[in-house]
Design goal:
The chain has ten helices and ten strands. It is of the alpha+beta class. The strands form two sheets. A six-stranded antiparallel beta sheet has the order 3-2-1-6-5-4. A four-stranded antiparallel beta sheet has the order 8-9-7-10, sandwiched between helices.
């Protein structure tokens, strides 16, 4: 078995993927209907829309598959190495896959076709995959049909990217946060007012998803977003940046005042967890950055600094 190599743009590719906020989310009909269509069109036992994360293949929508697989054994991880589709007519005749656990194990994959899913930035994030337990041919017409479905997947991803609102929490997404924050910071600069930014990294989301399911994980994120809405002012700018990452820009707020604000928010989160008898601990790491009058009101620098402080808080 040959382990898949890393794409040459791996760092940027992962950054783009994480910013889409699609990993570890629940089923969505707009993607499920496309895998149903692929399964019916090609008559295969398996059809999936998958994305390749750092160490795993994560299945957003799939018929006949688990939710995730190790990246080392992923067919999809090979498919994103080239912009052209990958077709394996008989896995037992291909040295990359002949002794792969997905071939020799319960799935018994003998045929695989994967068409890369391209982000608007050009990065290949994952693939539309079909597979079966019998070898088979696959011609140019079949590939054109796969491409038609991939176009629909890419359109859905583009619409998610263009929106400024996170569909799960109702908060701003990263794109919306950047636009609104920079405008707010420009206003603070004109008024010689301070600003602070808090970056929140919610803990144990993957554990919640694994033990209690993606629906419960989505509920945890929605709970946290609601707590942010109640815990900060209407004039503050709130966003969900990545799967389990949130941020708040506090306008006209000096760094000296942020600790009290964050302490009150922590009390609210802890109280909510107890009062609602959550079957898990709703906790987080936080990093804070700030800008004072006459200094640099740059959004990217402010966000990166707060993110780095949150990473350090993890230890």
């Amino acid at each position: 078995m040959k382990k898949p190599e890393l794409p040459i743009d791996e760092t940027h590719r992962l950054q783009v993927l994480h910013h889409l906020n699609i990993l570890d989310t629940g089923n969505e009909e707009r993607f499920d209907r496309l895998t149903r269509l692929a399964k019916q069109m090609f008559g295969t036992k398996i059809a999936a829309i998958s994305f390749i994360d750092t160490n795993r293949q994560w299945v957003k929508s799939g018929k006949g598959l688990e939710r995730e697989y190790p990246r080392d054994i992923s067919f999809c991880a090979h498919a994103i190495l080239d912009s052209e589709p990958m077709v394996v007519n008989d896995t037992l005749s291909d040295t990359r896959f002949s002794d792969n656990p997905l071939v020799l194990g319960d799935l018994k994959i003998r045929f695989y076709a994967g068409y890369p899913i391209r982000h608007v930035s050009g990065s290949l994030l994952g693939a539309l995959s079909i597979a079966d337990d019998e070898p088979r041919g696959f011609d140019d017409y079949d590939l054109r049909c796969m491409k038609d479905i991939v176009d629909l997947v890419e359109n859905e991803l583009a619409s998610m990217q263009l929106s400024t609102q996170d569909h799960l929490t109702g908060l701003l997404n990263e794109h919306g946060f950047e636009v609104i924050c920079q405008n707010s910071l420009n206003m603070c600069e004109r008024l010689n007012a301070p600003a602070s930014l808090a970056f929140f990294d919610v803990r144990e989301l993957k554990t919640i998803n694994k033990l209690r399911g993606n629906v419960e994980g989505d509920r945890a994120l929605a709970f946290f977003a609601d707590l942010l809405k109640f815990g900060f002012r209407d004039s503050d700018v709130l966003a969900r940046l990545e799967s389990d990452k949130f941020a708040v820009l506090m306008n006209n707020t000096p760094i000296a005042n942020t600790q009290e604000i964050l302490d009150r928010f922590k009390e609210r989160v802890d109280r909510y967890s107890v009062e609602n008898a959550l079957p898990y601990t709703l906790d987080y790491y936080v990093g804070v950055s700030w800008v004072e009058p006459e200094s640099n009101y740059d959004f990217s620098n402010l966000l990166d600094t707060a993110r780095n402080f949150a990473i350090k808080a993890k230890g």
